[in-house]
Amino acid sequence: MAIIKANTEVIKKALKGGRKRFSIAGHEGLYLHTRPELDAKGVNIGNGSYLIRYRLGNTRRFHTLHRDARNATLENVIEAKNKWLDKVNLEKVDPKAELEQQRDLTFDALFRQWVEQHAKQHKRSWRDDVARYETHIQSRIGHMEAASLTRRDVIAAVAGIAADKSPSTATRCLPIISVVFTWAVTNEIVEQHPALRVPKPSPKMVRERVLAYAELAALWNALQKIASGETKAPMTPRLARALQLIMLTGARRSEVANAPAAEIAGDLWSIPATRMKGKRAHVVPLAPMAEKLFEVSIADALGSPLTFPGRKGGTLEPMSLNHALGRLAAQIKLADVTPHDLRRTMASEMGRIGVPEGIIGRCLAHTQSSVTATHYNQYAYLDERRRAYRLWQARLINIASGRKLHVLRWHA
C-alpha cells in the first residue's frame, strides 16, 4: 500500500489520481481511499474517503471517518481519528456501535433535539427557525437519516426552496440546516457536516420596502375594520390591534406580540432589557391611539398576564403577525409586506416631517454608537420622542383619511 504525506496540497493532488488506497504517514491506522468524481462538465475533479482501522479485543475493524475528502480538512479528520481511538483505548467502548444506534435518527428528530437542548437556551429567534423549518425544510429532508445526509442532499433541498419560494427564503433556511449539524458534530451525535461550505443560492439582500400613502391608507383602514369587529377575515381583532401598534410605535414584532400587560402604565410602555434586541431597557411614550389600543387589548385578554395571548392562553408566536399580515395584504392587493416594513415606514415618514435622525433612532431603540451617547448622555429624550410619535399618529390618520395631507412638521 502506498504511503502519502499528511499534507493538504499533496492530498488534493492525490484525489485527482483515480482509484487508489493510501496510508497517511505519521498517523497509524488512518487511510485515504481516492476515487474518480465528475463535475457537471464531465471533468474528473476527484474525491475520496478517510478511513480508520482499529482493534477491539481480537477483532480488527474499519470505519469511514469522512466520505467527502475533497471538502474535509486534514486537521478535522485527524482530530476525529484521535477521538475515535480514545474511546476505544481509554473508554473501552466501540464508537461504531454507538453510531449504529443513531442510524435511525432522522433530521427531523435531530432538529427537535437541537431546539430543546440548544436553541431555546441560546437563540432569541428560535421560534422563527422552527417556523421556517416546518414550512420549508421539514418536507424535504426531515424524513431522511441525519447521519446519511450528503452535501448533495442539502444542495438539492436549498435549490428546491429557492425554486418553489425564493432565493432569499432559501438563503435564510441554509443556516438553520448548518447550525443544527454544527451542534450535532460538536456533540458527537453525527460525524459529518453535510452543510459545510454549501453555497448560498443568492446574496442576502437588504430590504428597503416602504409603504406608499395609498398602501398605508388601505392597510390601516382594513385593520381598523377588523379591530372594530366590522369584518372578521382574515385575522382576529387581537392580531389587527397588534399590527396597528407596530405601525404606530415602530416596535419590533416580538416586542409587541409578547408584551406583558404589566409593561403598560398609562402612556408609557416600559420594555425590559431581557426582551430587547440590544439588551437595553426601552421606554416607549405612547401616542393617544396607541395607548387606547393597549387598553382595549389588555381588557380583551380577560385577565391574562399577556396583552396578546396566543391560542389556549399561551405566548403569541411573532411569526403569526407575518402570516396574518400576508393574508390581509393578499386580500387588499398589497405587494409583499412584512411587520418590519411597517417599522421602516414609520421611521421614513418621521424623517420626512423633519424629526431629527437621533430621535428616530431612539424611537426605534437603535444602539447609539458614539462614545458620548453610549457612556455620557443618559438623557432619555422622552418628551422629544413623545412629540415625534404624536406627529406620526396625526400624519398616519391624515394619510388614512384620503384627504389632502396637512403640513405637519417637526419644530425644534
Explain what the structure shows.
The chain is an alpha+beta fold and 412 residues long. The protein has 16 helices and eight strands. The strands form two sheets. A five-stranded mixed β-sheet has the order 1-2-3-4-5, with helices on one face. Strand 2 and strand 3 form a beta hairpin. Helix 4 crosses helix 7. The radius of gyration is 28 Å and the shape is elongated.
* Cα end-to-end separation: 83 Å
Q: Using only CA atoms, what is the Rg?
A: 28 Å
Q: Specify the number of helices.
A: 16
Q: Which regions are unreliable across 5 or more consecutive residues at pLDDT < 50?
A: none
Q: Biggest sheet: strands side by side, in what order?
A: 1-2-3-4-5
Percent helix among the residues?
40-55%
Structural class, please? alpha+beta
Mean pLDDT: 89
Global outline = elongated
- What is the percentage of strand-forming residues? 5-15%
Would you list the SSEs in sequence order as H and E? EHEEEEHHHHHHHHHEEEHHHHHH
Query: How many beta-strand runs?
Result: 8
Instruction: Report the major sheet.
Output: 5 strands, mixed
